[in-house]
Prior knowledge:
With 425 residues, the chain is an alpha/beta fold. The protein has two domains: 2-19 and 234-420, Enolpyruvate transferase domain (UDP-n-acetylglucosamine1-carboxyvinyl-transferase, Chain); 22-230, Alpha-beta prism (UDP-n-acetylglucosamine1-carboxyvinyl-transferase, Chain). The chain has helices at 22-31, 48-59, 86-89, 99-106, 125-133, 167-177, 193-204, 236-249, 264-272, 310-317, 336-342, 373-385, 396-399, 405-411; strands at 2-7, 13-17, 39-41, 62-66, 72-76, 83-84, 108-112, 137-141, 144-148, 156-158, 183-187, 208-210, 216-220, 229-230, 252-256, 276-279, 283-287, 297-299, 323-328, 347-351, 354-358, 367-369, 389-393, 415-420. It has a four-stranded mixed beta sheet, with helices on one face. A four-stranded mixed beta sheet has the order 2-15-17-16. Strands 4-5-3-14 form a four-stranded mixed beta sheet. The longest helix has 14 residues, at 236-249. Bound molecules: ligand EPZ. The site of ligand EPZ has 25 residues, from helix 1, helix 5, helix 6 and helix 12.
Amino acid sequence: MDKLVIEGGVALRGDVHVGTAKNSVLPILAATLLTSEPCRIVDAPRLRDVNTMLRILPALGVQCERDADGSITTRVVDESISEAPYELVKTMRASVCVLGPLIGRRRRARVSFPGGCVFGPRPIDLHLKGLRALGVELDIESGYIVAHAERLRGASMYLGGAFGPTVTGTANVLMAAVLAEGVTHIHMAACEPEVQDLANFLVAMGADVRGIGTPVLEIHGVDELHGATYRPVPDRIEAGTFLAAAAITGGDVTVRSCRPEHLRAVLERLEAAGCRLEIGEDWVRCARRGRIRAADITTLPYPGFPTDLQAQFMTLLTLADGVSVVTEKVYPERFMHVAELARMRARIRKEHHIAIVEGTEFLSGAPVLASDLRASAALVMAGLVAEGETEVRRVYHIDRGYEQIEVKLAALGARIRRTEDDEGV
Length: 425
Ligand code: EPZ
């Protein structure tokens, strides 16, 4: 196991390029199950989660090759297998995204029921509700979702839950509907850029998807899909993480190869916290002089403030000149980072799905434990600004969603290195 060792106190300066979005690439790779022709995903990021998907797809009869330039080529060579095994699915919840395309193309699937994760229950009741609406017969047997469909018929459905739309639920139902007979309407569909990206990839494969980016997706089923070459959108969460790192260290960083239009809610909160922004076509420059201003954050479905940047912004607010209120409306229990930040002298009080963050003068470096992907990035950010040395252990969490984060941060001036974690955990 690795750990990251960080010596705090350096203001980050310079340019950093973000990669393509993990949460686009994962469902797009799953969507390659929908055609017998080769597909090419250009510039796919080198991440643990992508590598996990590249182990799951071959188990489902898909040959996958990673080219030197980072692109991935897929080709379905065997459609007789439709089981996504537990030992792979348990390592990554997003594997559940193979359910929709397996049913869409092979009319059957046996996918291990995805486990929860550190920030609370991760139900898939809405995924199953949407698939049943298309005529899929499914049940849970020995920890597996077992599904089959004689025919898939288009249907109209409402896919919202108590916390709003479901991103991968929309993806699963969309991928099952593109080859169904007739028209499907998904109401309360997720509008995240990554869901739009998947829909655009399906259209590039010959699907007929309308209303992309709106809460109502209209899918006209087609008989076949062909292969496609596609470059996914930039990772808005990686971009937001580097902007927050610039802010917390009092630096001046330009994040390049990003889509500012995917970051409106995040940029607005950065300005509220006292950052000076310059916004270009595919770049955002973030500089901070003077104190961080207290600012409230409420996470919401897109285009609201993303839950995947909540931990990073909470970390920024631990050094603000006042009290900030962080309200988590997507995953009410997503506060694993609070206890670890407290070890670094942050003053945060949790009240159910709300955290009250009282700004403090400084953070103090300490050994901390990474828990989930985004909380881990927040702890790295805290280490960048803390007095003294911080060790972030169980770095495999970070590697799931950030490509060489320590290399990119060191290029911006951070004193950060990756070492073996000899203490074992
Ligand atoms: C996706 O997860 C992302 N993962 C998550 O990013 C992200 O945090 C989340 O969307 C919200 O934006 C991928 O895209 C691979 P949801 P997903 O279904 O699809 C409830 C990261 O760090 N819900 O949109 O699993 C659910 O409990 C990861 O990259 C139901 O009640 O999230 C939650 O409260 C972490 N029933 C809310 O909806 C369901 O059937 C949103 O969940 C499904 C979800």
